[in-house]
TrEMBL record:
One term of GO molecular function: hydrolase activity
InterPro entries, per database record: Isochorismatase-like_dom, Isochorismatase-like_hydrls, Isochorismatase-like_sf
The protein's name in its UniProt record: Isochorismatase family protein
Natural source organism: Paenibacillus barcinonensis
Gene3D superfamilies: Isochorismatase-like
Record-linked Pfam families: Isochorismatase (PF00857)
Matches recorded under SUPFAM superfamilies: Isochorismatase-like hydrolases
Family, per entry: Belongs to the isochorismatase family.
Keywords associated with the record: Hydrolase
Tagged with keyword Transcription regulation: no
Length: 185
């Protein structure tokens, strides 16, 4: 069994809405750590099925574009918050004997949250990396002064006892890199 990284919706349609460079830097560092170990990485791209004026993912190339280099890693499309709404993702993970998924990307309160819950429901061990899972929304979006969206969602998932939530530094210092399953493809 092995580990895999799911990178959600790092697309121009979201990342151009506000400065998310700190989150993108964390995501890049996680990708590098997974590549160094030759662990599977998959990018997920959100594409709306309907053409809505307010959609962040309008069917325009510049909004759909992933802003990180996907290199040789596969890219799966989805039209709902959970990456698992694309049935090919689970097949791809199982074909690589993945039992533990790590989740990073955007938006924490939608796609990261729903993907983490669905992954756990599908039988995967799940780790969400809180500071590498951001949002372009703010406390004003939800009219909740003082709301730290990633921290709030991270706390809910962590308290569930079903999803592990860590910060990048904690992950890099953890035993996850030294588990007996590291060399399994």
């Amino acid at each position: 069994m092995s580990k895999a990284l799911i990178v959600l919706d790092v697309q121009r349609g979201l990342t151009s809405l506000r400065d998310v460079s700190a989150t993108l830097d964390k995501i890049k560092s996680i990708i590098m750590a997974f590549e160094k170990r030759s662990w599977p990485i998959v990018f997920i791209k959100h594409v709306d099925e309907q053409d809505e004026q307010s959609s962040l993912y309008r069917q325009k190339t510049e909004n759909l574009e992933i802003v990180l280099d996907t290199k040789q890693h596969p890219v799966f499309e989805k039209s709902k918050p959970s990456a698992f709404s694309n049935n090919e993702l689970k097949k791809w993970l199982l074909a690589r004997q993945v039992n533990h998924v790590f989740i990073v990307g955007f938006n924490m309160e939608y796609c990261c949250l729903f993907t983490a819950i669905t992954a756990e429901h599908e039988g995967f061990q799940v780790t969400l990396i809180e500071d590498a899972a951001g949002t372009v929304n703010t406390e004003d979006t939800y009219e909740m002064k003082g709301l730290d969206i990633p921290d709030f969602i991270g706390s809910i998932l962590n308290w569930s006892g079903c999803v592990e939530v860590v910060y990048t530094d904690e992950l890099m210092e953890s035993d996850v890199w030294n588990s007996p399953f590291n060399d399994v493809d």
